[in-house]
Amino acid sequence: MALKARALYNFHSENKEEISIQENEELIIFSENSLDGWLQGQNSRGETGLFPASYVEILRSRSGSNYTDYSSSPAGSPGHDSSYSASPNPGISYQGSFEDDDDDDWDDWDDACTVVEEPQSAPGTNGHPSPSLQYPAGYGQHQHVGYRPKPVLERQDSMSSSKRGSVVGRNLNRFSCFVRSGVEAFILGDVPLMSKIAETYCIEMGPRGPQWRANPHPFICSVEDPTKQTKFKGIKSYISYKLTPSNINSPVYRRYKHFDWLYNRLLHKFTVISVPHLPEKQATGRFEEDFIEKRKRRLILWMDHMTSHPVLSQYEGFQHFLSCRDEKQWKLGKRRAEKDEMVGASFLLTIQIPTEHQDLQDVEDRVDAFKAFSKKMDDSVLQLTNVASELVRKHVGGFRKEFQKLGNAFQAISHSFHMDPPYSLDALNNAISHTGKTYETVGEMFAEQPKNDLFLMLDTLSLYQGLLSNFPDIIHLQKGAFAKVKESQRMSDEGRMDQEEADGIRKRCRVVGFALQAEMNHFHERRVADFKRMMQSYLRQQIIFYQRVSQQLEKTLHMYDNL
Question: Is 295 annotated among the ligand-binding residues?
């Protein structure tokens, strides 16, 4: 039964699962059973979603007490510095699959162990996982929203400050990617240091600022020969791709579901890196030639970005994916990757940063500039994608039809000239008829041309749409880190925090800042190379195309020379 409630404090939503409420606002509560400190309901503006249980009182008309006050509950009360702990088996985010070959067991690699051993969740930062929350049936549209239990809810006033002492306040919004990714815990020093860290990723100062140290053993990897194969005596069909790393020169064969497994391990591990998105899945027509060719082209671009990234290319799970051919060794490496502890916030412990001083305000200004740039680039990439897609449609449909109409019209003229034989000139009639056939050929050339230029352009634009979509969440991590530094310095100035503790927060913020700047620099480096190649390829193919059209027309023109 729906219940009436009143908001005790203001709460501002930070994502689509939440709604904002204002002090003294009348609310409707769908159920008074809180979900780990959160209630589901509707505000006075008709918006439906979640808000902190401790921020409301439920109004009762017939009881000894006129309301239930959640603000006195030990977990999640304003001003109470409760803590939460992540699940020992953090979830993995998976791309939903419509493909039959992605839904079966990993029978060809590992019958006993699959990544489904870990609880699934919805994507968080950059697709990074977060533990799952089960909502009641009435809230079905959000059943897979990522969530951490025991949200920490604090009022930013003197009462809450006196209770938490020198501890920097945690974010009210436990859905925030800053929280879900574990970066907040890292900044506040709550991520335990490992006794032994086997992997390190170094950041150096380059001519344009921080940059990832290059892979000491660079390589490339080809993606070739998509081949349809079957199993279970032909019941199951799938496409395998031949991968040949240049540093090994020994091919391995992988299905799309194997790429998907690797992609989710990358999202799970690399918190502050923009992992390139895999080509999209398709519900039907998976074995059609055009779809297979399109997926191969986009996997080639994906692989090119993976091998060129100084960090992703060195990831042990990626190397295992590219090199392992033995089934037993594959299972061991797969399980090792799934049990990797240096993931999410712990990955930040593996980063070594330069000693050079960077003013945090300068870093924030640079991040803001990149944020504005990436938003503008995202808009322009979408605009070019729409224009190019429309041009493909015209090439395949409109242009071909118009040239066919023109060709048919010329043919009709030629046929009409045959109607009065005494005055008919065969050479002219044949030339006009050939002109009509030439324009029909030109129409077919227009229909085929997108395969040579526009498809490749759209492949690159699709890749960058995915990369750019990652940055808002990654930038949000840096913004959250900046806010913690400012808060800790204010508390230190007020004597409520040791300067040493504030310095530790600033130091850890530098790690996040250097990593983001290194990722920004890598993005720009790849952007220049990729768009140069894309534009050169498009213009070259356009020149070749119009030269071929010109040759067809010139050949036809010569038929009129000796009339």
Answer: yes
